[in-house]
Design a protein that fits this description.
alpha/beta, five-stranded mixed sheet, binds shikimate-3-phosphate
Length: about 425
Amino acid sequence: MRKVVEKDFKYIKGDIEVPSDKSISHRSIMFSSLAKGKSIIRNFSDGQDPKSTMNVFRNLGIEIEYISDKTVCVKSNGILSKPNSVLDCGNSGTTMRLCAGILAGQNFISILSGDQSLSKRPMKRIIEPLSLMGAKIISTKETAPLLINGCDLHSIEYASKIASAQVKSCVLLAGMQANGVTVFSEPYLSRNHTEILLKYMGANIKTDGFSVSIEKSELTPIDITICGDISSAAYFIVAALTIPGSKLILRSIGLNPTRTGILDVIKKMGGRISILDKRVVCGEDVGDIEVEYSQLKGCEISGEIIPRLIDEIPIIAVLATQAEGETVISDAQDLRNKESDRIKTVVSGLKTLGANIDETPEGMVICGKTELNGGCELETYNDHRLAMSFYVAGLLAQKEITIDGFEWAGISFPTFENLFAEVKSN
Ligand code: S3P
């Protein structure tokens, strides 16, 4: 679908909620499927990725029903059954990598498949630790599809070279079924929603700095309300920061410190942003965010902050085009393994728009402040975060732009354009 970004507004104003957190939505379905009893999940994400997870667990014999618009009821006896068909993870790396950890310890064979983009993404990062635990996984070229011959697993101590919540969660979910204590450590702390939710559901899990340990556990059902997704909020925050005269309040946004790297970057850049009414909901930090148009300066983004803003780098690149001076993003080579090679695709898209941006092996360098020209067509490379980042760049551009493949926004944020229509003001 080709989308023309309409410049029918002067500034952004409003008081909004964004869709619920995608990472927590996936995990709430997976973990409540493993718990014996009835779980209620409120404010479940309407993105296509969490729906892929829902369908995988329906295929594994779990009863999952919507009881109202965004409320889902999961009924399980705590046991998964052999699926009747291939488990289609769609575009979702989280579905595939976390499910692999769960399925490795089951007593049946299953196959996880994905779309074209997911089939190119590296699975060695999970096949390696799972195999060390005794898992039997067959794949060609260590990519999807994955054939998993479930079996008894044993615990490991695993020091991951990358800070990846998907790898960490995969090992922990396998560890929860293994004999002994599984210990996972990572170079920096990646998002910790798995640890928080498993603990909330009664798992034998302990965290200590960048290390987590888990033992065999029985989970209790949950009644959970999922917060707004800071990764979805990011597009609105950047639009408000960069469009003169804008001011926005975003309600009930997840503020887990392993996800708020973008807020730290905005503060470093001099952005006017504040948190109102911080609270804890189902173990997760939540609050309202107030943000307004700001004069920004470039900054350095590297090291421990990278996993805390990994999904926001495309929209941070857009933000950096509107900041005075140089923004250098490094240590982000894993961006090349996302839904697209996000270093290449972001740099090439923003260059087409007239930004002063260059690729480096592990990130990018952006020099601002530049006017974005527009009057061109940009490609999304089947990547939802590019579709939404380029849309915001299109709002800033002098002339209208067209985005090819805009429908990919629906992977995480089907109502993205409607919500922008609500806040565009004259
Ligand atoms: C996710 C973890 C991150 C992130 C992805 C969602 C998760 O991936 O990019 O969008 O829900 O665990 P990595 O853990 O591979 O960095």
